[in-house]
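Morning run. Coffee first, then this:
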Amino acid sequence: MALASALTGVEIVAVDAMQVYRGMDIGTAKPTRRDQAAVAHHCIDLVDPDHDFAVAEHVQAATVALADIERRGCRPVLVAGTGLYLRALTDPMELPGTWPEVRARLEARAAALPVEHLYSELVAVDPDAAGKVEPGNLRRIVRALEVCEGSGRRFSSFGPGLDSYAPTRFVQVGLRWTRAALAERIEKRVQAMIAAGLCAEVVAVLERWPEMSRTARQALGYKELIAHLDGVVSFDEAVEQIIVRTRQYAVRQDRWYRRDPRIQWIDIHTDPVAEAVPVISGLAVVSRASDS
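And here it is:
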């Protein structure tokens, strides 16, 4: 929002796998209505939470948004978010389809077998894909096996590969905190979301969309509070799980983005707006000059 105030003609494209869901506002840190009224935002509130949203759908919506923004002479700022969703935009790739029946069968097996068993299967049929998936990440293991069986091709054959970093027209900037500062910010953010009524939001979403999709249910904050509402964990345990899992997710995000040599990193010490916006504004000006 500060960058949009510093530059003219900026519109924001959300690159987030969970901000696409209507009604899931607090837990996804969705831009406020006031922010959305002040600056045009795209790829927010695309579907209901009972829809199993896929990366290909985001690519389609974001591509349309980018073309429209640029046609009007404005500048898109992609805010990520979800690493794979961003890579699919900056590095157009062949995306595999979905096979719901295959996935349902795999999920049924996953409920009855240890995750290590399915991971061993992935190692056998697609060792390259297995090498890029954490052995405990059941969702990604099931997805890779679904593609292998459904398409008849190795999941890793769809590309370009995520370890390939070709030149891109996008200027990419990352904000880098120390691990300790990030952990503290995450805890404060979770507590702020709880105070803002995240639990009530989860209840409202479940009442309106009782058949929440597999993907929507995995959203950080929602997954843990659903477990609390189901009587699996206490409220305090759910909050602690949100903090811990968000920290773990931040570490995975950090590892994902640090592999990309095209990202220009800005080390943040106290104030991300004051420290980052002037740098990003300068990069944007240089980028526009080179485009012309």
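The mean pLDDT is 92. Good start to the day.
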